[in-house]
Specification:
Elements lengths: L1 H19 L8 H17 L23 E3 L9 E2 L2 H14 L6 E7 L2 E8 L2 E7 L5 E3 L2 H4 L16 E9 L2 H13 L8 H9 L4 H5 L4 E8 L8 H11 L11 E4 L2 H14 L7 E8 L2 H7 L9 E5 L8
Parallel strand pairs: 2-11
Antiparallel strand pairs: 1-6, 3-9, 3-10, 4-5, 4-7, 7-8, 10-11
The structure holds 2-(butylsulfanyl)adenosine.
The site of 2-(butylsulfanyl)adenosine has 16 residues, from strand 3, strand 8 and strand 11.
């Protein structure tokens, strides 16, 4: 039974990964459901072989009455904001006053969601923690396990411990679908995807969270004896471990070696952001080299090596 259980888990993890990370369907939904059912029955019959990171946990069902608090090993900082080309020029000059070696930037989308810290030990997801006040957050692991883009087990040569940070978002189509359903049964509508993503993480019943089809984009890695030199290498590494990473091909992420490159990325997304299947509220510009990030350092609130460029809000209340 144990061999069968392990084989089913391995297969289902792979199918999930292909589907949600690589957008590839290797089997039909029906066949997937049959295998999941088979695993569920075996886990019910042999509770000694249960595993909190089994693919059966994706559908939720765990109820958390009150969320434990967790002290972040590294504070969860925020970003300072910029609104114009001049602000970006000033940011660049501030950095060049601190370091005098050549460097490049990496530009990313600024996902409009809710920050999350994911902690893995020995390749297993052990905790998902909200940002909280930046020093302490709340443990929402059962809810996080229902988010398909988040691996429950890492593959390849994973480190003993790794913390990965990112943003949980409510994809716009899924958000609209949820509001349509609520409208049909006369429930009040949710006002925007970001607040609803945040509220979803705090639901007590993880089966409810599973129904919401949340997604996750990653933007930072913390590990001892890190083996990479720059932020772009970090993403390649995360991809190998089984994470979904921002696509270079779709221009979700791009290196920049000048202010013009940065402005080009900003303008591209100012035009195209409405076509994205999720909301962004700006872009993030970071010094790509990690040793330089260290050298540049941070204030009590935010890193000096990164800045957010905020787009003008699409709607304001009257
Ligand atoms: S880097 C300061 N990159 O925006 C720690 N943050 O307003 C490094 N965010 O707290 C953050 N997309 O929750 C970074 N591509 C991205 C991001 C991103 C969204 C969030 C993050 C941060 C907040 C600051």
């Amino acid at each position: 039974a144990l061999n069968k259980i392990l084989a089913l888990r391995k297969k289902l993890h792979e199918y999930n990964y292909e589907y949600y990370v690589n957008s590839r369907s290797l089997i039909s939904d029906y066949e997937f459901d049959l295998l999941l059912k088979e695993l569920e029955l075996l886990e019910d019959k042999f509770p000694a072989y249960s595993d909190e990171n089994s693919p059966t946990k994706r559908v939720g069902g765990e109820v958390t009455k009150s969320f434990d608090s967790h002290a972040h090993e590294y504070p969860m900082l925020s970003l300072s904001n910029s609104y114009s080309k001049q602000d970006i020029i000033d940011f660049d000059e501030r950095i060049k006053k601190i370091i005098d070696v050549p460097f490049e930037y990496i530009c990313e989308l600024k996902y409009d969601g809710v920050a999350i810290s994911l902690i893995y030990e020995n390749g297993q997801l052990i905790k998902g923690v909200t940002r909280g006040d930046g020093v302490r957050g709340e443990v929402v692991t059962n809810n996080i396990r229902t988010i398909q883009a988040i691996p429950l087990k890492l593959v390849d040569e994973f480190p003993k411990k790794i913390e990965v940070r990112g943003e949980i978002i409510f994809p716009t189509p899924a958000f609209e679908e949820l509001n349509n359903q609520r409208k049909l049964i006369g429930l009040p509508l949710f006002s925007n995807p970001r607040n609803t993503a945040s509220g979803s993480l705090k639901l007590q019943d993880s089966a409810e969270v599973a129904k919401r089809n949340l997604d996750c984009f990653l933007y930072a890695v913390y590990m001892k004896d890190s083996i990479f030199n720059n932020a772009s290498d970090q993403y390649n590494y995360l991809q190998k471990l089984g994470f979904k990473t921002p696509s270079v091909k779709d221009r979700y992420i791009q290196k920049a070696s000048s202010i013009d490159d940065i402005m080009d990325f900003i303008n591209y997304w100012d035009d195209k952001r409405n076509a994205l299947p999720f909301e962004i509220d700006g872009i993030v510009i970071k010094v790509n080299q990690l040793d330089l990030q260290q050298e540049i350092g941070h204030t009590a609130k935010s890193p000096r090596w990164a800045i957010a460029y905020k787009y003008k809000a699409q709607q304001v209340s009257t």
